[in-house]
Structures are given as C-alpha cells and as structure tokens.
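Colleagues,

For the teaching module next term, I've prepared a clean inverse folding example: a structure given as tokens, and then the sequence designed for it. I'd like students to try predicting residues themselves before seeing the answer, so please don't circulate the second half yet.
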C-alpha cells in the first residue's frame, strides 16, 4: 500500500504575489513558445519584408540578418518553462483533497523548470486541446523556480483555501492535457495520452530524461522518481474460453522476456503471494475458471486475464454437492437481516433441475438441453469467493446492502458457442434492484456491472446489443427476472419478457429506452440461470444515445439521484415537481403550457400508453427513470 499524502502536504512553492510574466522567446513565430524549424520556415517567407512583419524582431525597416541572428540565439529555446510534470487520472487513495478531507480526486502537477518565479495568473488548463480556454487559473497564482503546484481536476471549479479545483475531470481511458498562455491560443505544454489507458493510484509523467512513464509510487508536489521500466505484455492462453466436451491442456505465455506467470483455479486474483507459479501446461478436465497474471521486477504487471471453460456434462448434473466441492458455501450465512426478523442464514440454491419431470416434459433429451444452453450467448462472472459469499464481506449473500462499499472486483466474459462473439473485461459488481435483493424472496438476485478504472477499462466498448446504435457502456444491469421469473414468489408462470417487450415497444414508438438481450449466466463456473443484460438509463446512457456531455445530464430513479448526484442536483426534475402540489387534482391550460416547457409531453404520453397497455401494477412511486439535460 502506498502512503497517503497528508492532508497538509499542500501545494509546494505556490504563493500569491505579483511577479513579472515570462513571455515566449524572441524568434517564436508560430505562437507555440518554442523556436524551431517551423519558425525558420515562417521567417524565410517574411525575409526582406517590411517593418510591420512579425519576423522584424529589432524594429528596423525590414526583416534581415540581425533579425535572423536574434532567432538563432534562441534556437530550440522554450519560452515559459512550465511543464505538465505528472498527473493521475484515477486517484483512489494517493492524494487527499486538502480542501475536502476524505475525497480523492484526479490531479495535475505543474513544475517550474526555470530560474525565475512565474506568474500563472490567467493561464489555462484543458483536457481538450481544441478548447484551450476550458479552465482559467485565478489571478494572483505564482510558481517559484523549481517548485510544483498540484491542481485538482474534480469538476468543482473554485479556488480553495489550500488547492485549485478545475471544472473538468480526467479520463482514465485516455485523453489530452494542455497548459496554455493567458492569450488563450499559445500552447505552453501538453500531453496526449489518448491511446494510453491510465491505472488507479498510478501516475503518469516525465522521468529524468523527459520521457513519459508510469510511476508506481506517485509524488504529487515533488520530484518524480522510480518510474516503471516498462509494461509487462499481456498473458496469452493456448485455449480460448468456450464449451468443451473432452479434457485438454492450456499453455500460458507472455512475450516480455524474464516475466513470471502466476495463475489460479480457485477464482482468486493470482498475484505473487496467492497465485501458483506457472511451470507447464495446465490440465482441464471439468468446468474451470483459469486466471493468470505476469510479473517482472521494476515493471508494471499485467491485469488479470480470465478464461472460463464450460463442460455441459457438469452442468447437466449440477447440485449442491458439486457446488460445495468447488468452494461454494451451504447454507448462505450473511449479516443479520432485520426485516421480518429473517435472521443471518439463507438456504443455498445450486441445483439445476434439468431432470425435473416438468422439464423433461418440455425438453425430453440431454442433447436438446445442451443445445438450449448454447442457443444464446453465455456470460461468465468470476469473482473471489469471499467477495461474493463470505458472511461479512460477500456482496451476493448480503444482497440487500447498497452502495459502492458493497461493490467487488470481478471478471465478466461474454461468448457464444460458435466463437463469433467474445470479450473479457475486469469490472466491479454489486447487487441490483429492490424486492429482488431481499433474501426471503429467493437466491437469484439481479446485479449491476460497473466499468471503472479501479478494476479495468472505464467503459465497455463492444456491440453487445445488436440493435442498439451505441457500443460504449459505463455499466450493465443483469436482470434476474424478479417479477417475471421462476425463482420469485414460487411462481409457476414466467415469461421473462415483459420488461424487454416494454423497451422494444418504446423503441418502435421513437422513444429513448434501454437495449438488452438474454444470456445464460455462470458464476464461478456454476450455472446461475437465464439473465437479461441491459443498459442502465443513467447520465452516461443519455449522453451516448442523445448526445451532450454526461456531466450536463441529470438522471433519476423514481425521483432519487443516480451516481454522484444529490437531490439538489436534480434541477429540472425539482422544477417540474414544483408545478404539481400534492393536493392538485386538475390543471389549467396555462399550467399545462408552463409544464410543457419543461416536460416532453408527447413522449410522456407515449410512455404512459406503454405502461397502461402493459398492465404494470408496481409503478407510479417506483420503477421509472427520468432525465433532462440542464441548460437546454
């Protein structure tokens, strides 16, 4: 664990004072604060021109040799010696916000490499080089020679007591950073990391040779040291995830010379402490979840690669004994559930009743059953057993508990029997829903997958929903079919299609609604049932489908804010609600017109038609989403 930066290790060398502004060097003709070959080209175009030309540095009657000598004197000089020295796009525990204790935000470190104090007043910092004036440094901020300033990229946009706060965040998936002159056009320094994914609590910046490197021990406000020597190449598996009928062996490899591979078969993260050193082919004789990582001293290790190999012969006879042999608990112990004095234990439910007489009447032979399990895509969740099923820490057995503190690291794989579809992503996973979360309702819970830099990529980039116009997702909801499935209320009637029908009908009516499909889901190699992966209609969803910056969208779930929003952030929603007092039973034409300025009335009416026609009874106070783009 890296040490946390103390609350009071504040911006070093920054003070509020009046100093002379450093300008770009004489000879800089293309306004990039550097004298280089592009300036020579411009100078040649203006050779022997009149006194009004930019290349007439000495103010004489024309551009001549003395002007060329002045340019040559500053050859390769940089004007304002400020550097974007280090930054972190996913700060989980390294640098604590000195103005907001307990908060850990993205940060940018600027270094003054010159020998004079530089007045930074009015300069700009941006994460989009095409928008150089995105955020302006306040008046009175100066940086001493050899000093550093750490600026927090946290969307808060203010000058705090101890730190500066920008109006943007950094994208851990890769983007740009730029520092611009107060004229709003001259670039002082920039870093383009658009194709370079960033990692949680690992910084990126300049080493002693001014080369961009990752730093395993970040140093905000101090000199950069101990850069990674390189990145270990990803592990490769000789057999791909999928369905198998006979035993085989898997060989692991890594292209980085000198790298050591560690693997696990117990669903855990195979690090150098808990993993098994790879020494030769691994035999696979039954359903197996194989995970691997590669390490090399001084290098950044790989992420966890996971491949699930499914033997349907195992699935056909899956029962509690088989589950316990694989490390699953029976029964499920969890924290005390006070509702109805339910207690701290629930029965497990692992058996696949493919040979139940009612099933046999529908699907009489094993070959047909196996074909059914291959007929739609497969999704495999692999998660450390304690993170899912431990009494005190397991998110699944404590499914009624909410929040990021009950989110756990996992792997999700998606594949079909033909091998045409395939991805694996490390992600966060937590329980999802309302009634479905409660242990007395059953053991099949809905879940939500979160794509965050804490675990892997910040977005899933894959066309998982074939009819959807988007293929980029911040999260996915895995619906277990609470009110429309076999597992809840002891029902014998289930279609699993009501919610999906509602969404598809809304699509046909030209409305914005989530897309989804169906999968057979496995958790740590056990068949878990039919699930409905779908989009979650939050701010990123509306940004992807309807355009605009997701930070400008407000979205709510039955009137409750989603994500980092608070009730006060639901500006449009609260305004619309203000038109409808609780006692209101009728509305005048003028009131209707006023509401229509805020509410898309035709879309709202179409939405009501779908819900009324579908006979939705659990609705009104629950089970709806609403969204609006602020300022539109």
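(Answer key — instructors only)
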């Amino acid at each position: 664990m890296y040490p946390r930066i103390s609350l009071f290790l504040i911006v070093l060398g920054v003070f509020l004072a009046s100093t002379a502004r450093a300008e770009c060097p004489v000879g800089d003709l293309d306004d990039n604060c550097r004298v280089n070959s592009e300036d020579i080209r411009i100078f040649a175009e203006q050779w022997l021109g009149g006194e009004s030309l930019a290349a007439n540095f000495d103010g004489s009657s024309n551009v001549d040799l003395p002007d060329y000598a002045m340019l040559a004197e500053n050859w390769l000089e940089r004007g304002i010696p400020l550097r974007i020295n280090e930054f972190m796009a996913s700060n989980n525990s390294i640098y604590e916000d000195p103005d907001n204790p307990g908060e850990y935000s993205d940060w940018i470190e600027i270094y003054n490499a010159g020998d004079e104090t530089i007045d930074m007043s009015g300069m700009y910092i941006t994460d989009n080089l095409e928008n150089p004036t995105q955020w302006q440094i306040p008046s009175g901020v100066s940086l001493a020679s050899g000093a550093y300033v750490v600026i927090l990229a946290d969307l808060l946009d203010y000058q705090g007591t101890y730190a500066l706060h920008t109006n943007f965040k950094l994208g851990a998936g890769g983007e740009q950073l730029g520092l611009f002159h107060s004229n709003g056009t001259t670039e002082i320094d920039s870093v383009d990391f658009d194709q370079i994914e960033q990692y949680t609590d690992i910084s990126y910046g300049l080493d002693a040779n001014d080369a961009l490197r990752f730093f395993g021990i970040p140093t905000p406000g101090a000199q950069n040291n101990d850069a990674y020597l390189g990145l270990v190449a990803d592990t490769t598996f000789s057999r791909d995830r999928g369905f198998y009928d006979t035993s085989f062996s898997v060989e692991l490899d890594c292209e980085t010379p000198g790298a050591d591979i560690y693997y696990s078969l117990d669903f855990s993260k195979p690090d150098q402490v808990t993993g098994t050193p790879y020494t030769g082919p691994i035999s696979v004789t039954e359903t197996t979840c194989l995970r691997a990582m590669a390490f090399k001293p001084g290098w950044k290790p790989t992420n966890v690669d996971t491949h699930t190999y499914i033997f349907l012969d195992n699935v056909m006879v899956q029962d509690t004994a088989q589950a316990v042999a694989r490390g699953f608990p029976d029964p499920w112990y969890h924290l005390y559930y006070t509702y109805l004095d339910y207690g701290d234990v629930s029965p497990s439910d692992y058996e696949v009743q493919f040979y139940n007489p009612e099933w046999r009447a529908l699907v009489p032979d094993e070959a047909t059953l196996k074909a059914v399990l291959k007929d739609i895509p497969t999704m495999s969740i692999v998660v450390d057993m304690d993170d899912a099923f431990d009494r005190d820490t397991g998110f699944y057995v404590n499914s009624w508990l909410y929040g990021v503190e009950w989110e756990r690291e996992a792997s999700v794989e998606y594949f079909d029997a033909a091998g045409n579809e395939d991805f694996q992503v490390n992600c966060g996973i937590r329980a999802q829903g309302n009634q479905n979360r409660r242990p007395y309702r059953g053991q099949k819970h809905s879940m939500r997958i979160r794509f965050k830099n804490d675990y892997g990529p910040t977005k899933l980039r894959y066309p998982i929903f074939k009819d959807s116009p988007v293929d980029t997702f911040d999260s996915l909801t895995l619906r277990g079919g609470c009110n429309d499935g076999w597992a809840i209320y002891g029902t014998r009637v289930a279609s699993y299609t009501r919610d999906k029908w509602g969404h598809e009908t809304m699509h046909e009516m030209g409305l914005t609604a989530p897309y989804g499909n169906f999968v057979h889901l496995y958790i740590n190699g056990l068949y878990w049932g039919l699930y409905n992966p779908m989009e979650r209609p939050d701010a990123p969803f509306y940004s992807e489908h309807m355009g605009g910056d997701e930070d400008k969208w407000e979205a709510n779930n039955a009137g409750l804010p989603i994500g980092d929003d608070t009730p006060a952030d639901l500006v449009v929603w609260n305004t619309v609600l203000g038109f409808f007092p609780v006692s209101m039973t009728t509305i005048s034409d003028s009131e209707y017109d006023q509401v229509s300025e805020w509410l898309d009335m035709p879309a709202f009416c179409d939405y009501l038609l779908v819900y009324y026609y579908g006979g939705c009874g659990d609705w009104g106070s629950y089970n709806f989403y609403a969204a609006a783009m602020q300022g539109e």
